[in-house]
Specification:
Helix content is about 45%, strand content about 15%. It is built from twelve helices and ten strands.
């Protein structure tokens, strides 16, 4: 899509950008030459304590809740938005609901932070006890709890983007939104296919839920590129023909897999948008049947979507609204 200034303005008016700000204490400090003192029997520090120029000060496990919450926030934004200007472009009508979910993540993050800081001294002592030969190096590197507390932060900023009088660079970024969206859908659809469909002859109706989430993401962001709506229409046409109950297998599963494989390929989605080809036949054997859940199709319980790593965007730690000019 070649975006004109008018088109860019129309797109920007329908979306906001959400930028995550998350920092997590590493649980380590820089390794100093004096730390490399042989332990009893000439033993060097183990990889569990020392690695890549740093020494660890506590178990990795005690920091996992923070990484889990950070990843959860990324998944929430990626489910309804598309990467843009270091954040996520989200349809305006989704911002309120997404903000409520991010506020809950922030609350959970702060609760985990309080729990961690309360037990901070105990975490350090347990690590020292587990590595007595290097206890002195560990103790000498331990920062005070106030310093550590400042290293744990979670927030987000919601803002609108408005074009400047010379918007060429912004036009290029907006022009790429459709391509970025197709690439994200393709990546998630490939993960879904591998985890749910490959090698299966029948799947349960729960398999429809992740397909519907991809469909809803495309539908919500269709305004960024005129080539997105035809893909949604193709999906809806197939989903509306699915039975309302029972497992998915045989011809029904084959037709469903055709839709998933359409989403797996950026090229196929582009050709679908141009109306050049019909869906190509699926040449796969032994695939588990899965049902995409549409407004017409009844779905069962929600199936967890593929766990795909998302990069965290670092901006200032607020949940305020602002306007940025580019």
């Amino acid at each position: 899509m070649n975006a004109t200034n008018t088109t860019v303005t129309q797109i920007l008016e329908q979306m906001s950008v959400i930028a995550l700000d998350c920092s997590i204490w590493s649980g380590a400090r820089r390794l100093k030459p004096e730390d490399l003192v042989l332990g009893k029997g000439g033993q060097l520090p183990s990889d569990e304590v020392v690695s890549l120029g740093s020494k660890k000060l506590c178990k990795r496990e005690v920091l996992k809740p923070f990484h889990r919450l950070r990843d959860q926030a990324c998944r929430l934004c990626a489910r309804e938005g598309v990467r843009f200007l270091g954040g996520y472009a989200v349809p305006d009508h989704y911002v309120s609901g997404l903000s409520l979910k991010l506020n809950q993540v922030q609350q959970d993050f702060n609760q985990e932070k309080q729990t961690f800081l309360t037990g901070y001294d105990q975490h350090i002592q347990e690590w020292v006890n587990a590595h007595p030969d290097f206890a002195e190096a560990i103790r000498n590197a331990v920062p005070d709890v106030q310093h550590v507390g400042q290293r744990f932060q979670f927030g987000y900023t919601t803002y609108k983007v408005v074009a400047s009088p010379q918007p060429d660079n912004l036009n290029q970024q907006v022009d790429q939104l459709g391509n970025t969206l197709r690439e994200e859908i393709s990546r998630d659809a490939q993960a879904l296919f591998e985890q749910t469909f490959r090698g299966k002859e029948k799947v349960t109706r729960k398999a429809l839920n992740p397909i519907l989430r991809l469909r809803d993401k495309l539908h919500g962001l269709a305004f960024v590129d005129p080539g997105i709506s035809p893909i949604v229409q193709r999906l809806d046409a197939g989903l509306s023909q699915l039975p309302n109950n029972g497992a998915l297998e045989g011809e029904v599963l084959t037709q469903l897999m055709e839709r998933v494989l359409l989403l797996c390929s950026v090229e196929q989605m582009e050709r679908c948008a141009e109306g050049l080809t019909a869906l190509e036949p699926v040449m796969v054997q032994n695939h588990e049947s899965t049902q995409p859940q549409t407004p017409v199709v009844k779905s069962a319980e929600v199936q967890e979507e593929p766990d795909i790593k998302q990069q965290v965007v670092v901006t200032e730690e607020t949940a305020s609204t602002a306007t940025f000019y580019f």
